[in-house]
Structure formats: structure tokens, C-alpha cells
Prior knowledge:
- The chain is built from two helices and 21 strands.
- The protein is globular, with a radius of gyration of 20 Å.
- Helices cover about 10% and strands about 55% of the residues.
- The chain has a single domain (about 40-360), classed as AttH-like fold.
- With about 375 residues, the protein is mainly β.
- The chain has helices spanning about 10-30, 175-185, and strands spanning about 1-5, 55-60, 70-75, 85-90, 95-100, 105, 110-115, 115-120, 125-140, 155-165, 170, 205-215, 220-235, 245-250, 255-265, 270-275, 280-295, 300-310, 315-330, 335-345, 350-360.
- The protein has an eight-stranded antiparallel barrel with strand order 14-15-16-17-18-19-20-21. Strands 2-3-4-5-9-10-12-13 form an eight-stranded antiparallel barrel.
Amino acid sequence: MPEVEAREFKxxxxxxxxxxxxxxxxxxxxxxxARPLGSDAExxxxxKGDFDYNESYYFNFIEGSGIGGYTRIGFLPNQEADTGVMxxxxxxxxxxxxxxxxxxxxxxxxxxxxxxxxxRLIPLSRWRLSFKGRMIxxxxxxxxxxxxxxxxxxxxxxxxxxxxxxAPPFNFKNADPAAVAEMLVSARTRFSDMRKVSRISTExxxxxxxxxxxxxxxxxxxxxxxxxxxxxxxxxxDWSAPRLxxxxxxxxxxxxxxxxxRVAIDSVDIFNGFLVRGGRNYPVRRAxxxxxxxxxxxxxxxxxxxMEDSGGFTIDVTGDVRTVIPLDLRSRGHSTLVxxxxxxxxxxxxxxxGIAEYLHQVG
Length: 363
């Protein structure tokens, strides 16, 4: 069933859209938007005192057969430890996973935690991702939340990949003003709720790219040449703040890549994202999304969406979920479920693999 769909505006609503769009444009011209990102944006930023302050570096990487995975380093300066994860889609429902704790080590050209290391080769363009160690071998990814590591086998794994951007990073503050205004009015957003959006990493940019290198699982070495996507955000990240979010990404070779995100916090319910075409990023102008869930109402099964970008280009995409990793995120007694999934996307005759991430509040 449709989750979000376009509707016609009444006269008063059209006036609100025009006023909000003008206000957002004025805000950007006054310096509220992030001007072109400099190389310093790639480094760790001065932390604020909120318990939920989180600076996150995320990469995913997937090749044509669906082998791939994702990795994330989270810097949590006001908590007892930072966090690092790497998870590999190893074929079918098989998952290889590692969690690295302790504290992040950060230099001018390197960020690491435990055995996970990100090397900054060219700021805003090229990174190297590496891991060498043992991962738990989970035969069915959906077992992960309740798994007992002592009852699982371990596998020796090596990851050595280079990520290279297809276009410059897209700063999410550079959303299309008219699109933001239309979505706020359409959702009948209460302006008192707008401040709550600041609970989800106010500073945030993403980049579509290529990934190349090799992944070694046991004695099997897999030459890797595929796609990837990365995210760098910093600020307060309160997992309990959104009532839901959706994050969809995929690259159809060098021709086109998409990033579509939806965030809902109380009365706020908006899309953001971009299309990459011809080495350029185009902010999303309009989007419609429908999702088919499994019987539990939380595990995504199929997606269908339409995206129109600020250049007037429109894509219609369908997606089928292949492997789901349920992540149980707990903070101060609250539980949030994030279903991170490998999905097969279709755009016309083209087929590619990407990520479909859905967040739900459990309680």
C-alpha cells in the first residue's frame, strides 16, 4: 500500500508552500547551507556534550552477484566506548560479522577501531577500507539478534577495498527548497516539531561510488569490482527520536545512482536524497514510495518508488529484498529495530544490488 504519495494543494496551502520555500532559500543564501565541502569535512569534528552525540562513517559495497556488505565506525565521545562493525553478505542468507569496541584512533589520513581501518586517500573522493581477522559465521542473517557467538563457527576474513566517488559528496542541507516546503505542507507539519529533526545528525553528507579490490573468506578470494555508497554524519543521533525512517541506495553502473531517504518524527514526514547523473548530484524534487512488508509488519519485502530530481529527470524503480539483517539498537532502556537489507533493484531493463534500510520503534 502507498506510504507516501503526492496530493493537490488548496489555495491556502499553495501560499504556505511559496512562503516556506522563500524562507528556506533565504536561509541558504544567508549561509545556513553548507558551502562546498572542504577536505576538513572528512575529519572528526569537535564534539558536543549531549550523551547521544555521534559522529558516523559508513560505507557499503556490493558487486554484481550480490556479494558485499557494509561497515560503520561510530565515534561516541560521551559514552563508555565507540563502535565499529563490518558485515558481509556472503551468499544466500549467510552473514559474516564482526564488532570492534574500544576507542577510535584518528589521524590525518586514517580512522580505525580495533581491526577495522578506513584510509583517507583523497579527501571527498577516495577511501581504502580494510579488515583482517575473524568474523562470526551466521548461516541465517535473521538469527543475528539472539545469536550466541560461542555456539557459532568463525571464519578468517580479509577485506581490502578502495572506494571512489562517482560525483562529489551531496550535502543534505542542499535540499531543494520548493520540495522541502511542499512536503512540510503536505504532511501538515507542526512547526513545533521541526526542532526534533535536530536529534538525527544535523550535519550529513553522502556519496555514491565504485568499489574495487578483494574480499577473502577462508581460502576463497573474491576479486571485487562493484558499487558502493558512503555516509558521514555528526551531531546528536537519538535512535528513539524518529517514529520511522527509510533509506534506499543503489548504483546502476556509472550511468545513474539514487539515494532516497524518508524521515518521520511526530508530524514531520519528509523525503530527502538525490540522483547522480553525469557526474553530478541532483536533489530530489518529488517522490512517492510504497512498501510491502512481511506479516510482522516490520520486515520490508518489496519496494516501489518514483523519484523526480531538481533537473526534471524521473525514475521508476522496484526492489526485492534478498537478505535482511535485523539490528536491535538499545539505549537507556529503549529498543529500536533497524532492518538493514540487501535488495535487488530494477530500473527499466537494468538490474543492480543496493541497500534498503527501514527503522521501527519497538519500545
